[in-house]
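User: Predict the complex with NAP.
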Amino acid sequence: MNIFIAGGSGRVAHYVIEDLIAKGNTVVAGCRHPETLKASESLKPVKMDLHATVEDLEKVIAGCDAVYFLAGSRGKDLFQTDSFGAVKLIKAAEKLKINRFIMLSSMFALDPKKWNEPGINTITDYNIAKFFADSWLEKNTTLDWTIVQAELLREEPGSGKIVLNPEHEGPVSIPNIAKVLADVLDMKNTYHKLIMVKDGTTPILEALEQVK
Ligand SMILES: NC(=O)c1ccc[n+]([C@@H]2O[C@H](COP(=O)([O-])OP(=O)(O)OC[C@H]3O[C@@H](n4cnc5c(N)ncnc54)[C@H](OP(=O)(O)O)[C@@H]3O)[C@@H](O)[C@H]2O)c1
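Assistant: Here is the predicted structure with NAP placed in the model:
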């Protein structure tokens, strides 16, 4: 497949791109500063700003078979990038009938009752932004979506083991969340599913195969 990644120069995208290319896919990596990425036969960095119109985003993702939303503003531009940027990219994918859409989001973003829990209670504005983006994808589209939610992303080697849909938040290593994102691409049992992930004890593929 030829796969578009919004936020293609980010920490998570780095590992997702590695995983997707290793599986034989090609990747178009979109961000505002594509010069930070090294182009190759399998990787095409492109300039893309989520402030753009739906029509302009369509031009950037045209020719792709699936779309990942791995972009984010680190709290600096939540409305335009994390929330409405995602909605516009979703709309662009729908217009072009690129049906597979995978969203990286924040754990419990769709469950405001949990937003006072330690570990999450300092990122409410971010959770609100993701609440609207995730809700849009879940309720207002015909896409084959998967939402993968994580809490604290840790820069450490991946254990290859996770727990899905935990009752309480907890960290996940960036290579682990990246492998989840890459693996769900063609797993039909993860279509139309919200999957919360933290580091745990079950091998990633085994955990994902249990998603019903
Ligand atoms: N940090 C956490 O603990 C945590 C937890 C759960 C979920 N998440 C989510 O995971 C996402 C990925 O994490 P990460 O650590 O890989 O993030 P990151 O390293 O900060 O990467 C963010 C990406 O978004 C791009 N971007 C930012 N603003 C943009 C815009 N207006 N238009 C287009 N691209 C834009 C950046 O590239 P340019 O600057 O070149 O545009 C970069 O490629 C986060 O954004 C967040 O939503 C994070």
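DSSP finds six helices and eleven strands in the chain.
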